[in-house]
């Protein structure tokens, strides 16, 4: 359905659609019309006009999320359009804002906020080329260094050095972009454009480099920290990180796989875990925590009980939780605040069904997203699952890939899911009866795509028909075989692949050397 546009917005589109005329006329445009013209230009992908609007921005702040979000004149939210043409035009326009004005006293811009840009899987821009978080980090760092070099080498207006603009951004750094971003952060105090890191993600980065760059980001301002793929952070490194750096505003923390492994715990490790829990307790803003693929058996209480603020998001997927861990979660003060919960990789029906449903009951009034992938949920558990989910009237997303459910069980479950009024996204497994007889769960990657595609398509069609007949066209149902879309991984998958190949090669070389020594 087309979104309604006001006459003002239609006029703005007409104005910016003639780029040459619009660029010449900007000097006579009223300042309060700049946001309107910006959104119209972004929608039409008028890169040159966007550049000139930013270069001549007359207001004190420039907030991408607000400018592209729902507005009175055009309600469609464009903040999920990470159009390369548009974003590059905005950032180069920002650089030229500093350089090209002869009269710096009319410059009012103080804050540029780029954090409202959302990276999504499906793009609607005409150019079909996106600029993800990694590329935005790269381009802003490059422009800051170019700007500094230009100001130092040329006899430009000395007033340019008096300009100071905070640029709020979600930084994403890998080995490939590390040197460039470090240089930009090191020279931040000299540059008119000040990179202010609100959230930081690192993948494929040596531990030493991570420790160095995180200190340069000004951790006192950091709200979100994601240490994800191929950063070999273990528990002792995490303790050093928390002891040497304070994160007073940190709201969200994601730790890499295998940060914790209680199977090989010593007394010293127990003390270390207690210390980490206490340090997290000092982060009074912390409400989101992801610790997937660690071994945390029997230690959830020790980690989470020191927290003074209830968690709204918790990801403990594949963390080998036992009954005591689940009992702590169900009875803790976190339970009634959990909006996002991921318990994938735990055999819920066999290990702790009643405790899990107690947790679900306590969080039901606020729960928005629930992920139960590879949890051994079978046909016999569907009625119990429906009972547990019934109070979760605010549930928007339910993911349960990798569970051994038949086509009939899925139809029964979908009939119930139609009754959840806020539901928007469902990720369901390939039905068990689409796989060869005797398939074992969890299914390994090699066997994952060996199913009867024709039968699956037929079942998927029936499930969508159930949604349609219940007038639930608003619900998207899909089976992403190899997991949900991750914009960051998608953008850097070539580098991630190369890193994994090198790691494998190093392991083989070490193994070969060891064999040679033995023989």
From TrEMBL:
Record key words, sorted: Leucine-rich repeat, Repeat
Cellular component aspect of the GO annotation: cytoplasm
Record family assignment: Belongs to the PRAME family. LRRC14 subfamily.
Protein name according to UniProt: Leucine-rich repeat-containing protein 14B
């Amino acid at each position: 359905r087309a979104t309604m546009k006001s006459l003002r917005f239609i006029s703005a589109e007409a104005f910016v659609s003639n780029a040459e005329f619009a660029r010449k006329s900007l000097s006579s445009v009223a300042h309060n019309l700049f946001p309107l013209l910006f959104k119209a230009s972004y929608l039409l992908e008028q890169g040159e006009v966007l550049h000139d609007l930013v270069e001549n921005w007359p207001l004190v702040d420039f907030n991408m999320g607000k400018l592209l979000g729902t507005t009175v004149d055009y309600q469609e939210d464009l903040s999920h359009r990470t159009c390369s043409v548009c974003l590059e035009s905005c950032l180069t326009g920002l650089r030229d804002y500093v350089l090209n004005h002869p009269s710096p006293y009319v410059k009012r811009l103080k804050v540029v906020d780029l954090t409202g840009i959302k990276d999504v899987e499906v793009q609607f821009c005409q150019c079909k080329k996106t600029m993800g978080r990694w590329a935005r980090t790269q381009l802003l760092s490059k422009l800051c260094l170019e700007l500094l070099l230009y100001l130092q080498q040329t006899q430009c207006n000395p007033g340019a050095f008096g300009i100071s603009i905070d640029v709020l951004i979600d930084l994403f750094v890998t080995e490939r972009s590390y040197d460039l971003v470090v240089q930009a952060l090191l020279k931040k105090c000299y540059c008119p454009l000040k990179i202010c890191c609100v959230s930081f993600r690192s993948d494929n980065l040596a531990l030493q480099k991570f420790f160095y760059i995180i200190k340069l980001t000004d951790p006192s301002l950091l709200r979100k920290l994601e240490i994800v793929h191929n950063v070999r952070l273990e528990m002792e490194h995490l303790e050093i990180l928390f002891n040497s750096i304070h994160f007073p505003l940190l709201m969200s923390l994601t730790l890499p796989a295998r940060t914790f492994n209680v199977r090989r715990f010593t007394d010293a490790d127990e003390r270390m875990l207690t210390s980490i829990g206490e340090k997290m307790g000092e982060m009074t803003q912390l409400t989101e925590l992801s610790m997937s693929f660690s071994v945390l058996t029997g230690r959830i209480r020790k980690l989470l009980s020191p927290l003074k603020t209830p968690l709204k998001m918790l990801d403990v997927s594949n963390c080998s939780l036992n009954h005591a861990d689940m009992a702590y979660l169900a009875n803790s003060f976190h339970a009634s605040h959990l909006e996002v919960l991921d318990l994938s990789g735990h055999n819920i029906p066999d290990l702790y069904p009643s405790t899990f449903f107690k947790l679900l009951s306590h969080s039901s009034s606020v729960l928005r997203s629930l992920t139960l992938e590879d949890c051994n949920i079978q046909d016999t558990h569907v009625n119990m699952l429906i009972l547990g989910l019934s109070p979760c009237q605010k549930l928007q997303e339910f993911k349960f890939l990798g569970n051994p459910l038949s086509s009939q069980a899925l139809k029964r479950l979908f009939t119930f899911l139609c009754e959840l009024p806020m539901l928007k996204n469902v990720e369901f497994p390939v039905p068990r009866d689409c796989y060869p007889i005797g398939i074992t769960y969890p299914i390994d990657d090699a066997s994952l795509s060996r199913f009867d595609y024709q039968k699956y398509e037929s079942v998927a069609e029936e499930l969508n028909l159930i949604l349609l007949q219940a007038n639930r066209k608003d619900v998207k149902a899909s089976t992403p075989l190899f997991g949900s879309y991750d914009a960051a991984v998608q953008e850097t998958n070539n580098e991630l692949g190369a890193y994994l190949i090198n790691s494998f090669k190093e392991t083989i070389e070490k193994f070969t050397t060891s064999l040679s020594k033995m023989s």
